[in-house]
Amino acid sequence: MDSCVTAAIAAAENDEIALLHISYGQRTEARERQAFNDVADHFGVAKRLDVSIEYLAKIGGSSLTDDRIAVTEADLESKDIPTSYVPFRNANMLAIATSWAEVLGATSIYIGAVAEDSSGYPDCRPEFYEAFQQTINTGTKPDTHIEIRTPIIHLSKAEIVRKGIELGAPLHLTWSCYRNETLACGRCDSCALRLRGFEQAGLKDPIAYEAS
């Protein structure tokens, strides 16, 4: 959902956008790819790149990529980093996005990172993106100028839902569940945050969930 709303913002701010999907061996890889293509079709995006960094699954350390680690039940009051954190994932993704952006001649990379109302992942903090911006500035060609854009990083999930509705983002095409690929579980961190966002926005989530 966060990526979909971010794509809607990017589409509103630019004449042309390109969309990147990255598989990293996550449990819901196939369902996320379907959502990516459905959202890309909605926005009429021709430039798409689908790549795999499944070495993150081989490295392990996350319940999203290692079946031996359980996806924990949501605890939205916890300050601990959950088992779903994939170590340094966003740095790997940004590196790929930067390479493609430089080839395309793109001037911005949009990423749907959320800091305030998220699971507390360290690579979703504003200071992480500020640091990576310096890496891009240092590690690309002198005539390359790529800016990392994090337009929803300070929004709550409810504000993200409202922004998506405002922009006509296809939230019904998105997928957030960490566990399932048919009906969302409604109990993992991602589902719980999403459901709370819709509830606080006074709206019904358009996707289907398992009966509680």
Measured by DSSP, the beta-strand proportion falls in: 5-15%
What is the CATH superfamily label? HUPs
Strand element count: 4
| Topology as a string of helices (H) and strands (E) | HEHEHHEHEHH
Overall structural domain count: 1
Average pLDDT works out at 96
Q: Given the structure, what is the number of helices?
A: 7
Distance between the ends: 22 Å
Gyration radius from CA atoms, angstroms: 17 Å
CATH level-two architecture = 3-Layer(aba) Sandwich
Percent helix among the residues? 40-55%
Unreliable spans are none
What's the CATH topology label? Rossmann fold
Give me the side-by-side strand order of the main sheet: 1-2
Structural class: mainly alpha
Largest sheet: 2 strands, parallel
The CATH class is identified as Alpha Beta
What is the general shape? globular
What descriptive keywords fit this protein?
212 residues; mainly alpha; Rossmann fold; two-stranded parallel sheet
Structural account:
- There is one protein chain.
- Helices cover 40% and strands 8% of the residues.
- The chain has 212 residues and is mostly helical.
- The chain has a single domain, classed as Rossmann fold, CATH 3.40.50.620.
- The strands form two sheets. It has a two-stranded parallel ribbon with strand order 1-2.
- Helix 6 packs across helix 7 (189-200).
- The protein is globular, with a radius of gyration of 17 Å.
Task: Write the topology of this structure.
Blueprint: H1 2-13, E1 19-23, H2 29-43, E2 48-52, H3 55-59, H4 89-104, E3 108-110, H5 126-139, E4 147-149, H6 157-167, H7 189-200
Parallel strand pairs: 1-2, 3-4
